[in-house]
Amino acid sequence: MQMEKHSEIFNEIDEIVHSKSLALIGDSPNGGLYWLKSIVESGFEGAIYPVNPGVESALGLKFYKSLLEVPGDVDLVIVRVPAAVVAEVVKESVMKNAKGVVVFSSGFSENNEEGAELEKKLVQAVSGTRTRIIGPNCMGIYCPESKLSFRPDISMDPGPVGFISQSGGHAIHFAIVGKTIGLRYSKVFSYGNACDLDSSDFLGYLAEDEKTKVIGMYIEGIKNGERLICALKKATEKKPVIVWKGGRSEAGARAAASHTGSLSGSAKIWDSVFKQTGVVAVKGLDELLDTISVFVFCPPTTSENMGLVSISGGSSVSNTDFCIEEGLSVPELSYETKERLNDFVQKMGTSIKNPLDLAGSYNYPGVLENVLGILGEDQNIGSVMFEVQVHYPSLIEKLLEAPVSNIIYGGMVEGCKKIRDKSNKPVLIILPRTSYEEAFIAVRNLFVSAGFPVFPNIASAAKALHNAIKYFKRKRE
Amino acid sequence: MQMEKHSEIFNEIDEIVHSKSLALIGDSPNGGLYWLKSIVESGFEGAIYPVNPGVESALGLKFYKSLLEVPGDVDLVIVRVPAAVVAEVVKESVMKNAKGVVVFSSGFSENNEEGAELEKKLVQAVSGTRTRIIGPNCMGIYCPESKLSFRPDISMDPGPVGFISQSGGHAIHFAIVGKTIGLRYSKVFSYGNACDLDSSDFLGYLAEDEKTKVIGMYIEGIKNGERLICALKKATEKKPVIVWKGGRSEAGARAAASHTGSLSGSAKIWDSVFKQTGVVAVKGLDELLDTISVFVFCPPTTSENMGLVSISGGSSVSNTDFCIEEGLSVPELSYETKERLNDFVQKMGTSIKNPLDLAGSYNYPGVLENVLGILGEDQNIGSVMFEVQVHYPSLIEKLLEAPVSNIIYGGMVEGCKKIRDKSNKPVLIILPRTSYEEAFIAVRNLFVSAGFPVFPNIASAAKALHNAIKYFKRKRE
Question: Are B416 and B429 in contact (CB under 8 A)?
């Protein structure tokens, strides 16, 4: 395999991401040592230098009075001091040959004119040097591969999802929720006001990064539209880029201005940028996570033909509505499929068709294992959406006073694997809310660990799958 | 207070709902004694007569060989025998002077021509008698007040919500999920094919029922449009009626035909019926539950002005987008409110405005308790949407190694109570997914038990509240 020659900006960011030493400026026990704990608990293997003149030591680590006191060079500096003194720390970082400075502190251009002036000083401090700034007003870097994290409670297993977020809160939320639905990350960047490195830089980096297979983005605004359009075009040629634009509304744009000092631009302009560049545009964190799940856990498809399976006739009707309204189809099954399904579905009150309402058969061992597999083999069906209603197996278990639910769920997973592995088609698990909360979590984890995407309702699954279908159709053109 | 004279149909259904004796036909230990356990565990206080010639006794109850063997009259008969023999049981029910027969069995008009013939025989069997049929192909009645239930695992605490569902699955799901978000029920009817009593009858009943304050409906189709329109008009004059129409799409309508034998009618016709009658039309179970939550837990409002509170700037931006896109407003706060909030919000990096991004202040004891109350008093604000991100207090607790999260959550609830009880304005709790699953459940239950509606994301909260606002605006006209 030929190695691709990487761009200069790729190398710069990659060095920061793979820092071998790290200084934390301003973390204190009063704040719970947020940053120090995040770094230590993520298992960072390089040198860690906490800096705070008021602290002797914590977590077994010596604290330094200032960054300049730290012995030798420091690759990465994370800064949590008041805005007014950040520029000073950045200058010291330059003196320590830092590759990157993450400025967590806020109070810059997002705040007022005075803050904007302070922000300019940060840029001046690194101008003409090899030191790059991430932020200010951001969470910085989360990279399981290099054991670098901005929270002490997110997964350190690496995975294929890259994420770029102007908002630190959304970056955290994304990492936290993604953990529960099986998403694992290559690199996550929260970059806030983007005074130096910006969304285009990180996008270019993730596009070139081999570990990253899918890129998610939350953008509020940008300073250089041309650059971003160019970066989006390049990135979408290589991998799916799913973008959530915050500040679509005028009031939201005003909020964005005071959040990250961003000029949002009109929703129309953004829509046309997304169309032009082949970006998958989404609205909201849930749709972002759901859409990424489809790209990560499902084989590519351009078929809009859904096979729907549930336990109830009511669900069958309303799930069909939601698929159709999303622009998908719920076609007839082939004669052969119906004949084959006939052997497994109880006759009383349910007929064999798409959507498939299994009613009582749903809970019979052996039924779903076979029914799902047969449905997956139908040439009329492109993907299967399977609704798991936890309160049926849980109740059966209670009524029969026997541990039957694990057998039922095991059969479900086996059936889904047949669709995915034998027929190479997407299977989407719909897992609606229920009062059986423990069982809900256990069942979700069962499907997640078997590598299936899980959605809270049919509408979100249909939307996410359709996003992916449109992407692959465009690719094919 | 003057007692209203009730309609004849009200009295008929009310007698069925308050049955004093009950026979269960065809329940067997093979099926886990589903019906018998549902009735026994719901605490039904009248006589219970299980009928199955193959069973001697179960759960300490004697089984009868046939319905006619049961001593004396039986108010309510629940039938679970193959479709072909249901008519016979209905005839016997008439002989036992039953007020109502719930036909759980399916295999009637929803199935094929033969089934439609069988269904006609049921109608003939009660024609000219005082016995009424609910079903076939349904779950029947769930009424905590009379300790009658169609599941052994749903709440038996009575409440203000009435629900009418053509689908048994949706009726169950509604009851199950409603339990977790604090909804409690007066009467729930699942009526399936509606061969005798139909949606208009149940709607008329719930409209007259004093215990029912809000009515939810899931309809797939109807036989008599005029009657339903009339019933909807009458009902909406008395209380909010929230309707979810299943089978909106053509494919969904086909599914409905084979689910409850219903003719769905075009989506356009239904839309105009809903407009004409003042019904609150919703799409999907989640929107139905969310909208009912607003009617149950919030004071009436016609103001579209939202006050938004969250911990993160990113959430502030995107929550604003969702409110605006739903047609709500996020106005400026009054000068006075800003001044008052100033005392409680940390200065670094957050400015005081709407949406209010509390950042670090979010976790400070005493902050939310006061901030929420002050926001509620602002005359520019009609409702408050408060986003609770469980992973912040949970992490603070972990970092500080002190049980601070209960103090933080306690302050949140106190603040929300001030808005509701002092300012008499709606407060909607946004509780997004998180990996802190135990804490999530505990926090949801905390808000639910304090009487607040809880939503999975801002979009669903905004949609549900706007549904209610539009209803109250129409009422005011």
Answer: yes
